[in-house]
Amino acid sequence: MADKDSAGSETFHNPSAADPAYHDLDSRIALAGHPIHAMLVAFPIAGSFALAFCDVAYWWTGDPFWARAALWASGGGFAMGCLAALAGAAELLLVPGVRRRAAAWSHAVAAMVLLGVMAASWSLRLQQGAEAILPWGLILSWLALGLVGIAGWHGGKLVFEHQVGVSLPGTEEDNDPALKPSDMKGNSPS
Ligand code: HEM
C-alpha cells in the first residue's frame, strides 16, 4: 500500500504489520530458548556439500571409496534433513508471525524440494551403487547444492531480517533490575 509523506514522496507500508500476531516470532520448538531447527539444519547442509564433493572425487579418481562415502553422505543428509524439516514445519505451524511471512513459505517449499532430491539421490545409490553416480548421482547432488543455497538464503532471511526466534532487548536479562547496562555484553558505552 502506498501513501504520500509530508515531503510528497510515496512511502510503502505493510498492512499485515498492524496485526499483533505478525510480531509473535518466538520459537516454540526450542531448548532453553535456542531453536532446535537451527541446531539441526547444519547436518543436511553439510551432508549436501559432502555428497557433491564425494561425487566429484569419484568422477575424478574412479576410487569406489568415494561412492561408498557418497552413499553415507546422501543417506545421513536425508535422514537428518527429515528431522530438521519436522522441527521447521512445527515452527511454521505454531508461530503466527512465521506463518505471516512470505520468506517462510519460500523457505519451506525450497526445503521440501531439496528433501525430495536428496531422497531420490539416496535411493538411486542404494539400488545401483557406484553406477548411479555418472551422470545422475552427480546431477542430483549439484542440484541439491543449489537448493540448499535457496532454502538457506530464505531461512537466513527469517532469522537475520525478520528476527524469528531471536531474544530481543526488553526480555529476560534486560528486565533484570539488578543488571546495569554496563554489565551487559555489547551494551557498554566504551
Ligand atoms: C533440510 C531442509 C532444511 C534446511 C537445510 C533448512 C535451513 C534453514 C536455515 C539455514 C535457517 C536459518 C537458521 C539459522 O541461520 O540458524 C532456517 C530457519 C527456519 N526454517 Fe528451515 N530448513 C529446512 C527445512 C525447513 C522446513 C521443511 C520448514 C518448514 C516447513 C522450515 C522452517 C524454518 C523456520 C520456521 C525457520 C526460522 C527459525 C526457526 O524457527 O528455527 N525449514 N532453516
From TrEMBL:
Coiled coil: none annotated. The keyword Transmembrane helix applies. The chain crosses the membrane at residues 38-60, 72-95, 102-121, 133-153. Residues 169-190 are annotated as: Disordered. Keywords: Membrane, Transmembrane, Transmembrane helix. It holds the Pfam family DUF2231. InterPro entries: DUF2231_TM. Residues 33-167 form the DUF2231 domain. It comes from the Bacteria. This is DUF2231 domain-containing protein. It comes from Glycocaulis albus.
